[in-house]
Design a protein that fits this description.
The chain has eleven helices and 13 strands. The longest helix is centred in the first third of the chain and has 22 residues, at 3-24. Residues 1-20 have low confidence and may be disordered. The strands form two sheets. Strands 6, 7, 8, 9, 10, 11 and 13 form a seven-stranded mixed sheet that branches. A six-stranded parallel sheet has the order 2-1-3-4-5-12, sandwiched between helices. The protein starts with a helix and ends with a helix. Helix content is 44%, strand content 19%. Helix 2 (40-56) packs parallel to helix 9, helix 3 runs parallel beside helix 4 and helix 5 (138-152) crosses helix 6 (169-182). The chain is an alpha/beta fold and 324 residues long.
């Protein structure tokens, strides 16, 4: 064998095992059904899911495809249809953030009965047959929002709550927790008008409109508890001089950080939006490949407090989380 043929033979012996191994990877489709494509937190979750498929798939001997079946705008019935379609079309696992727990429950149960591993993230369907939930402890979240707002307002004044979708189970728990914690602050009060709670479609524009309308009609509001960061994804959402009305909000996406830097928002409480996708794929792969459940039915990720002091350092995370 001449030198050229020897080198070619060695190259083939090295390359072929890897080629065969790649062909032997088990093909797994994981469906991700978030609340809406227009919500930036779910765009981060989608990026996390895609990264997990790429980075974790080979570790599980799998070629993982993410099937993103999220409605353009929030619609629980379309979510249910997406879950059913994913199960029908061969998805091995599904991660869903439920706009309405009861609407999603039959679709989740039907998918599980057909052999699909189904989990919830962000917003649960606790009475369904899903095997796990990953996300925020919503009661702890609402409590934390109110505690941070009390500090920002020196424990006195009138507040209002911006509450998103009235039917979303995770948001209902957060509102209840804000109210419960408010009872521990006798010099603070919930606005009388509208019960102090303002619901809206979960788009940045609708949220900003709801907040501006409420503030305009009720100028005595001195603080806002934003149990979701929806209006802060738009510019000029807070129509008052920085610091005049105190704001504590859930989430800390790039668009929101500007409000923290200029003093319109005092505290952001960051959820693991990227991890909703990344960790959900990991949990599903454990279930699909290893038949392994997480240690607890509910896997809770703690909130990260972001203030003016640490905002620049925190912002660096988004270069990865949004695939930059």
């Amino acid at each position: 064998m001449n030198c050229r043929n020897f080198i070619a033979a060695v190259a083939i012996s090295i390359v072929l095992p890897f080629a065969v191994h790649a062909q032997d990877l088990k093909k797994i489709t994981i469906g991700v059904v978030a609340k809406s494509q227009s919500n930036a937190v779910f765009q981060a979750a989608y990026q996390g899911a895609k990264d997990a498929a790429k980075e974790l798939g080979p570790q599980y001997g799998a070629d993982v495809t993410i099937d993103w079946q999220t409605p353009a705008d929030e619609d629980a019935q379309k979510q249910a249809e997406a879950v059913e379609a994913l199960a029908r079309n061969g998805a091995a696992g599904i991660a869903v953030s439920c706009s309405e727990a009861r609407t999603l429950q039959p679709a989740i149960n039907k998918a599980v009965a057909s052999g699909v591993a189904v989990m919830c993230f962000d917003s649960d369907s606790p009475k369904s047959k899903r095997f796990a939930y990953y996300g925020t402890d919503d009661t702890a979240c609402g409590t934390r929002v109110m505690k941070e707002l009390a500090v920002a307002m020196n424990d006195q004044g009138t507040i209002a709550i911006l509450a998103g979708n009235q039917s979303a189970p995770n948001l209902q728990k957060r509102v209840a927790a804000v109210k419960a914690e408010l009872a521990n602050h006798p010099n603070m009060h919930l606005l009388d008008a509208s019960g102090g709670v303002f619901f809206h479609e979960e788009t940045p524009e609708k949220a900003a409109d709801a907040l501006r309308t409420a503030q305009g009609a009720n100028p005595n509001i001195q603080g806002w508890a934003l149990i979701g960061g929806w209006p802060l994804f738009t510019e000029n959402a807070l129509p008052w001089p920085a610091g005049q009305v105190k704001v504590v909000s859930v989430d800390a996406l790039p668009a929101q950080l500007a409000y923290l830097r200029d003093g319109h928002v005092q505290v952001l409480l960051a959820q693991d939006c990227y991890g909703w996708g990344y960790k959900s794929v990991q949990i599903l792969l454990d279930k699909i490949v290893k038949n392994q459940d997480p240690p607890s039915l509910k896997v809770i990720d703690p909130l990260t407090k972001v203030t003016k002091d640490n905002v620049d350092e925190f912002a660096k995370n988004w270069d990865k989380w949004l695939g930059k």
